[in-house]
Specification:
single chain; 683 residues; alpha+beta; 7-stranded antiparallel sheet; Beta-alanine-activating enzyme isoform X8; PP-bd_ACP; Quinoprotein_ADH-like_sf
């Protein structure tokens, strides 16, 4: 017997062939045997024979020999009836005969050549006119959104996100359109995410074709509508007749604020942090990592690879490549959950007053337009404020601690009183604000981006915009502030990473990454990191020089986070892995989850084993993973009853996260024998 890579079953002494081991792939976060696609396709009446390939590990291609050349669209519709969405082929290619090797097997390399020629030929074919472009755009729209070709005509004002699209599908539509027209279309992704199908069509015509007469009337081109009342833009509260202005200098509170990516903002809390085992910052307020700054033990171990098949154990790969099994038990218990009415994609902000930690508050928004403040320990809703549209932006606290700042789909940046939710000021941009604000602890300025392609610096105390900068692309992600050197980093869906002077708004340098940047930049003392949809994590110096890149197999939407020692960097990928790399870009370990990892990981300390650092991460199928941060070993897994795009935040023994089942959850993390695992020690 020898290892052939075939899956078989044995019945009554006979071996029955089931399929090939190399036919197992992971697509859209789920496992798929491509032979299943082939079997379903072969069962269709119009198909004589077929074969399926996983082209460049990025496209599922179905090659068909059919009995009728005119049944391609019908076959696609039939496949959608019999296959799950993650198994629908990207392309159907009609061929005359299937190629075989000398051993009688399907010649996959020859099929790949056929597809390459097919793709090149398709890109070389010139469109006959605007009518054909319009028809093919409709076809691609339906294909990417898995809509039947017999579906009703797509209205001109249809928006991609409102029609069932998401970030990943928008990338696919972009690639399909660029394949269709045979060239890149700058700025198209931003249009797909924010504008109508007619606006997408006009943008393609204006960008790719020189004949201006082809362009349809722009009067019908529709962008996202903003229903902003005069009362809102005036900056007056909708609930109170008067708003007393707060004096930041006189009413500064001492507090700690935690947000995704184990970022901690501390103000006037040096003594408090010292009690927690932290070293005070040079600044009275600063952005620190939550883990022990003095823990700077380097990692020189070989890469470790863990899998999620058994929640109680994980396989390590040692230097001799001998599997080492280690089991750890850690449990989750729901402390409370709060219903927001609709999906919660935003990440929580946790604010802990230094003088009374028992009054700690969780601030988070949802698609229901609601912004809520919830008591961290009891789950009691302290206040609720209805904003003008959907909220995906995560909240940010002001320097004085008296205000919460959050962006909204209606293009407004809301400044709310932290103790009551009253609307103190509203600043209007020209498009949706999904970016989360970043606060400068030295000046109190707040920085935020908008889909209107601008970055803004806001002085909320003077209620004015200090500066505004055109970024050359939609700003989806959140800015990152470096205090030394004094740089502010923004990323765009046009693929630009920008370094900006936070005081003046002047651009210091820019780097084109070539593909859209949904990930937020993260910086440490030496470097700036960002994930790209081409699957690469990129590392730059603060002067814009690229140091290294680390490649995964799928797009990176997850924002990176660093350990406090700045020895490791953690991030997730759509290839379903959580990664840990050294600051030199070397893989330390990777852990395979059960779905795509969109959110940002969070590093915290195991209180039961003081020297052990843990990592919390979430996959989009709703699973929460607790890993040992040095090795990637699985400590525990818990499944929420809905998809998760929110990022976890951990304080003491509590993990807070949003879920697409409309709830925000607070979970107690219980260690060995039911002991609580704590992120920070306190007295």
């Amino acid at each position: 017997m020898r290892a052939t890579g075939d899956f078989v079953t044995i019945k009554d002494g006979e071996i029955f062939f089931l399929g090939r081991k190399d036919s197992q792939i992971k697509r859209h976060g789920k496992r798929l045997n491509i032979e299943l696609v082939q079997q379903i396709a072969e069962g269709l009446q119009q198909v004589e024979s077929c074969a399926v390939t996983w082209y460049n590990q990025e496209k599922l291609i179905l090659f068909m020999v059919t009995k009728n050349d005119l049944v391609k669209d019908h076959i696609f519709e039939e496949l959608q009836k019999h296959l799950p969405s993650h198994a629908i082929p990207d392309e159907l290619v009609l061929i005359n005969t299937l190629p075989f090797t000398s051993h009688g097997k399907i010649d996959v390399s020859e099929l790949n050549k056929i597809y390459l020629n097919y793709r090149d030929l398709k890109s070389e074919c010139k469109l006959s006119g605007k009518e054909e472009l319009w028809e093919k755009l409709h076809h691609l729209w339906k294909s990417v959104l898995s809509l039947s070709e017999d579906a009703l005509k797509i209205p001109d004002e249809s928006l991609f996100l409102n029609s069932g699209g998401d970030s990943l599908k928008s990338i696919r539509l972009l690639n399909e359109i660029e394949n269709l027209v045979g060239t890149s279309v700058p700025g198209l992704l931003e249009i797909i995410l924010s504008s109508s199908i007619l606006r997408i069509y006009n943008h393609i015509l204006q960008t790719v074709f020189s004949d201006k007469d082809l362009t349809l009337s722009k009067n019908h081109a529709m962008k996202r509508k903003f229903n902003v009342t005069q009362e809102e833009t005036s900056g007056k509260s909708l609930r109170q007749e008067t708003v007393m202005p707060l004096n930041c200098d006189k009413e500064i509170n001492a507090f700690i604020a935690l947000s995704r990516g184990n970022q901690i903002l501390s103000l006037n809390t040096d003594k408090y942090l010292t009690k927690l085992g932290h070293c005070p910052s040079t600044y009275s307020s600063d952005l620190n990592s939550q883990t022990d700054i003095q823990n700077r033990e380097s990692l020189n171990t070989p890469p470790l690879i863990g899998k999620s098949e058994d929640p109680s154990c994980v396989v390590e790969v040692s230097e001799e490549e001998t599997p080492v099994i280690r089991a750890e038990k850690m449990e989750f218990r729901v402390r409370w959950r709060s219903d927001t009415g609709k999906c919660v994609d935003a990440s929580p902000l946790v604010v802990i007053p230094a003088i009374d930690k028992s009054s700690a508050t969780v601030y988070i928004g949802s698609h229901s337009h609601r912004m809520i403040a919830v008591d961290l320990y009891s789950g009691k809703v302290k206040w609720e404020q209805i904003l003008g549209d959907r909220i995906e932006s995560s909240a940010c606290v002001s320097k004085c601690g008296n205000f919460i700042v959050v962006g909204c789909y209606n293009g407004l940046v809301y400044v709310l009183k932290s103790n009551s939710g009253e609307k103190y000021w509203m600043f209007s941009t020209e498009d949706a604000v999904k970016s989360s604000a970043t606060m400068d602890p030295t000046t109190g300025l707040l920085y935020i981006g908008s889909h209107d392609q601008h970055a803004y610096a806001l002085d909320i105390y003077k209620k004015k915009c200090v500066w505004k900068l055109k970024c050359g692309g939609t700003v989806f992600s959140s800015p990152c502030l470096s205090l030394i050197p004094s740089h502010l980093y923004f990323a765009t869906l046009g693929g630009l990473l920008l370094a900006i002077n936070p005081a003046t708004g002047d651009r210091l340098w820019k780097h084109s990454c070539g593909k859209p940047l949904f990930s937020s930049p993260r910086c440490c003392l030496q470097y700036v990191f960002i994930g790209c949809v081409d699957g690469n994590l990129l590392c730059f110096t603060h002067f814009g020089e690229q140091v290294w890149q680390f490649s995964t197999n799928e797009p990176i939407f997850s924002s990176p986070c660093t350990s406090a020692s700045e020895q490791e960097i953690f991030f997730g990928s759509h290839d379903c892995f959580i990664y840990c790399c050294s600051m030199k870009g070397h893989l330390q370990w990777k852990f395979e989850t059960t779905s795509r990892v969109y959110s940002t990981p969070f590093v915290f300390r195991n209180h039961n084993h003081n020297s052990e650092m843990l990592l919390a991460a979430a996959s989009t199928d709703g699973k929460l993973w607790i890993l040992e941060s040095k090795s990637g070993q699985l400590q525990s897994v818990y499944e929420l009853p809905g998809e998760v795009f929110s990022s976890p935040v951990v304080w003491e023994s509590m993990l807070i996260i949003g879920c697409r089942n409309n709830y925000v959850y607070c979970l107690d993390v219980l260690g060995d024998k039911g002991n609580e695992v704590q992120s920070l020690e306190y007295t």
